[in-house]
Design the sequence.
């Protein structure tokens, strides 16, 4: 098979139809796949991807840095939380195999009871391998346990840059066309950390250019910048702690000891910004002991100086 293009609708369609030849089974599975992607995107946009293997061996849906759904030529592998599976209808079925690991050894069994955990990063996880002709009968039983797996995995692991580069926009286009539902595309979003990391990388590249090179580059750029959706995590900050820190500072920056540079036009008070000594993202507390009031210059210095 020629090397596949992850951005190609045609390649994604051909590989999916090669793996799941039955139109009915393919329809049911792709709607299941679509619902799982939608859930992951709603929970944490940008922390998932779909990898279409360029060599045509598999299609893989990852949430965070763990795999969640895999499509192979003989079967589909769906990860789930064992405690969420409330039925024994999947036990001892010819079309189903459960998978886990015990002491790094792969365990395959036809009974869920006794199946060891699959992933150490997702407690109580296992994989359910379903042969394609069994998808119609058994997917409904595994859907909610799979969604519970997604809810845990996507919040407790982070997708890597390498995984994001392997994302198949072609498969997303194919899935949108097949289901007639516009599928979210993780490549249209990025985390705040990734966004600023990329910006800093480009800024470093700009610093290395000569004056003439930077002039030519700047002139060649279009006036309308491209845009991307940035997903960020925000921390709730108590307004009482903010107000206390500013009153305690009494209009004077707690770093440079100079008066606030101007008055806030909204309330006429000295303009100071509150700052967490240990950042909240690093485990710092939103407390009076961890909060100070600074002038804008000193605040920037704390972050970038």
Sequence:
């Amino acid at each position: 098979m020629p090397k596949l293009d992850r951005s190609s609708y045609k390649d994604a369609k051909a590989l999916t139809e090669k793996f799941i030849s039955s139109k009915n089974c393919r329809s049911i599975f792709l709607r299941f796949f679509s619902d799982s992607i939608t859930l992951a995107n709603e929970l944490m946009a940008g922390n998932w991807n779909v990898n279409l293997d360029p060599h045509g061996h598999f299609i893989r849906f990852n949430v965070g840095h763990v795999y969640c759904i895999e499509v192979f030529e003989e079967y589909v592998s769906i990860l789930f939380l064992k405690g969420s599976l409330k039925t024994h209808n999947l036990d001892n079925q010819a079309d189903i195999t459960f998978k886990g690991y015990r002491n790094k050894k792969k365990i395959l069994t036809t009974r869920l009871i006794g199946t060891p955990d699959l992933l150490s990063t997702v407690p109580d996880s296992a994989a359910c391998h379903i042969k394609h002709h069994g998808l119609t009968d058994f997917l409904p039983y595994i859907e909610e346990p799979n969604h519970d797996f997604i809810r845990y995995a996507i919040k407790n692991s982070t997708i890597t840059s390498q995984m994001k580069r392997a994302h198949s926009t072609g498969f997303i286009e194919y899935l949108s066309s097949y289901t007639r539902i516009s599928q979210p595309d993780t490549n249209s979003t990025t985390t705040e950390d990734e966004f600023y990391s990329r910006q800093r990388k480009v800024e470093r590249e700009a610093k290395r250019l000569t004056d003439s090179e930077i002039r030519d580059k700047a002139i060649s750029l279009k006036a309308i910048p491209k845009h991307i959706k940035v997903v960020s995590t925000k921390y709730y900050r108590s307004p009482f702690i903010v107000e206390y820190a500013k009153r305690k500072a009494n209009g004077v920056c707690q770093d440079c000891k100079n008066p606030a540079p101007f008055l806030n036009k909204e309330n006429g008070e000295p303009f100071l910004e509150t700052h967490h000594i240990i950042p909240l993202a690093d485990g710092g507390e939103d407390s009076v002991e961890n909060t100070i009031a600074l002038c804008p210059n000193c605040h920037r210095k704390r972050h970038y100086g």
Notes: The first strand starts at residue 48 and ends at 52.
